[in-house]
Model the fold of this input.
Amino acid sequence: MHKTPPFSVSRVGCAIVLALMSTTGIVTTKAHAAGANKAAATPRVQSNNTTAPDTDLVRRIVRSLEQTNPNARSIGLPSPVTDADFRPLDPAQVELGKLLYHDKILSGNYNISCATCHNMLTDTSDGLSLPLGEGGQGLGPARENGFDDDAVHERVPRNAPHIFNLGAHEFTVMMHDGRIRVDPSKPSGFDTPADEDFMGGIDSVVSAQACFPVTSFAEMAGQPGENNVANSVFSNNLPRAWAILAKRVALVPEYAQMFIEIYDDVQTNNDIRYHHIANAIGAYESAVGRADNAPFDRFMRGDTGAMSMNAVNGMILFYGKAGCAECHSGKFQTDHSFRAIAMPQIGPGKGQNQPGYIDGLDDLGLGGETEIEEDNFKFRVPSLRNVALTGPWGHDGAYATLEGVVRHHLDPVNALYNYDQSQAVLPDAGSLNTRDFLVMNTPDRVEGIAAANELAPVNLTETEIDHLIEFMHALTDTDSIDIRHAIPMRVPSGLPVFD
Ligand code: HEC
Ligand code: HEC
Done:
């Protein structure tokens, strides 16, 4: 690979590398704390250019940065991720969660599991811009709309996010609009769409999230009239929907035995509640999703050979001139805030409306949740861990390439106006297709999205853009590239796993 000499990284400033020296212990060659621990369980693939820490190289980089920009101290790299950043997990719960996550028993019509949309074969997402949920057939980009009355009724209006690193303490807000979050002021400890109907006994926000896909008609519940889960949701009785599903699981002897062994408060299968299910799923997601051994992590822990020079250049741009770390800061490249960056809006929307419209085709993001106009079109700043694996990108998967979504950031409003609709990864869904681009084809709605933009354009050369993208690739945990081992061969209900 072409190596750029260290002095070419000098345009941003010394801050980054000074931060490197103080926070990562590069210069003193500190241990790979978390990496070493995780490696004990799973053998790690080494990156091609992993060498002994090259402290000389770092010193040279520091010196050249210091010479050219002594004032850039404000931009800091995060400190390396460690075990302490993650919630402790019970391995038995993780195993149970692995089965439940892949078991269609949790869907109203026994035909879709969490893994349909967050599949290990497609890096815990589905490879589509927008999922085809309940009623669809097949997996990943080959998924189809299904047949007749059972066919999908509506595309799921947002991109299925990956589940990487959600077991880290700092992830306290879930979903593109933040509608599920830790909230100590609530009796359950969580603010969720179920409000006071939400259950107790949930141990983390990722487990809290696992209570909701099963109550969504489009995702897992199916249509009212088709089954008693969907009927309960339709009559606004979420607790009954959860109770029905818990009962289904409790009636499978193999599951019952596992719950009895794992949970102190489960003596017989009659004691199984949905929060036991959700906590197991959350534990599995947290375990399989942990992804903190990317070249970037190894670099941060002192292995200066772990990233190519181009990626180092990209990192310096990311934390410097390109301004990415204004939002993508912290150990997981997100500050967990909500920002409007003029992302194109494709798909059927969230049933929300920009002023002047009543067709429900808009997705107002955070504004749809808070009903505060200034929050319109703000979406969660996503973590960029494993981002090279998890396309399509954006809250609705508008961008089919990583390069596309990175370039969007460099000139958001222009990118919005020049959005190429042909890249959307939307399998044919018959009559549903007609709704896919209605917003983008209505100029004043696009203007509404543009007007909310808060991301200033930034000028980068083509080489700099390449380096930035190479840095994005350096955020890929080599263990996450193939996670087929996290798929069970069978599930206790006997329902199919591999379709
Ligand atoms: C039909 C596809 C589909 C199915 C099935 C599905 N999800 Fe999702 N999931 C999504 C979509 C779409 C979102 C984002 C929704 C939003 O932000 O409005 C999401 C969001 C999430 C998130 C939040 C991630 C984050 O970063 O905020 C988690 C965790 C998750 N799902 C786990 C699950 C679990 C567990 C199940 C099974 C109980 C499940 N999903 C079933 C499509 C699906
Ligand atoms: C003003 C805050 C902000 C800044 C600055 C910013 N981003 Fe983002 N970024 C976001 C938000 C918000 C999203 C999600 C938007 C959405 O889903 O609609 C996002 C999404 C992304 C995605 C897609 C992630 C995914 O999983 O879909 C990538 C890649 C990305 N940003 C990279 C960058 C890079 C590289 C830079 C610097 C050039 C940058 N961002 C600067 C706020 C920001």
Q: What stands out?
A: DSSP finds 18 helices and five strands in the chain.
